[in-house]
Amino acid sequence: MKQTPVIFLDSGVGGLPYCNHFAKLAPQVPRVYIADRKNFPYGPRSREDLGSLLQKLLKKALDRWPAQVVVIACNTATIAAIDRLRASFPEISFVGTVPAVKPAVLASKTRRIGVIATERTVKEPYIYDLAQRFNSEINVVGLPAPELVDFVEHEWYAANRETRLEKVAPYIEYFRKAGVDGIVLGCTHFLFLLEDFKALSEPEISIYHSLEGVGRRVVQLLENRGILVQERTRQEPLDGSLSEQSSCQYREGASQSLLVVTGSGEISESWRNFSSTSGLAVEVLE
Fold first, then answer.
1. Mean pLDDT of the chain
2. Is 187 tagged catalytic?
3. Which of 81, 182, 235, 262 fits 113 for a cystine, CB–CB 3.0-4.6 Å?
4. Is 74 among the catalytic positions?
5. Are 249 and 56 in contact (CB under 8 A)?
């Protein structure tokens, strides 16, 4: 891959919605999605352990796929390690996937919001301190859900809608009893269950995530570096008036996008299905 790609990094499939959303915004830009199967899951790991393994993995990835923008498509890794990665790779622009606590806090009428995430994210003071910045009277109910992460990673693709709703229902009930009026999806894996969360919670409880904001930030950084340019084209609407529309153009041309799975072993059928639906060719990084 000679062109400059954007690297997305997560412990598994969780960050794929971010990778796929970015592809809609800038389809010309090659993507390298790294699924760290070897070290899955990230949630139980200590801050030091996670920071160290991500530093080594990213060094290996950048040597092979030189990128200028890297998306840490994992809430746990973002909170625990992004500062360390920025210090270790100062030439790289990093985008983190921070849980969407701010909009949930600002919209809350009950002054109680829920955050469903990994063990590491729930233990970190970050989400609670962030919420306090926007409302000192807010109550944050953190709920670790490692079983749900594992379900998305290994069973989601073959599961029907009824099964997905059954998996989500106990968490919604927990938050409902806690009196929250907003739930933040604090793990990227849970975006695969977004419609299921909404179906069981709305309109009484709103669901928050960071998908669109991350995509906009990646595009902005590529523009700042001159990799992606905004070109305005004049179009003629149906009413005959002229309007301007922005479109993203990639300076170097398209190239193959990849789903890179770490560790040894066969690529499972579910991984091949994910790669196919995401338009990514599969490679293994041992």
1. 91
2. yes
3. 182
4. yes
5. no
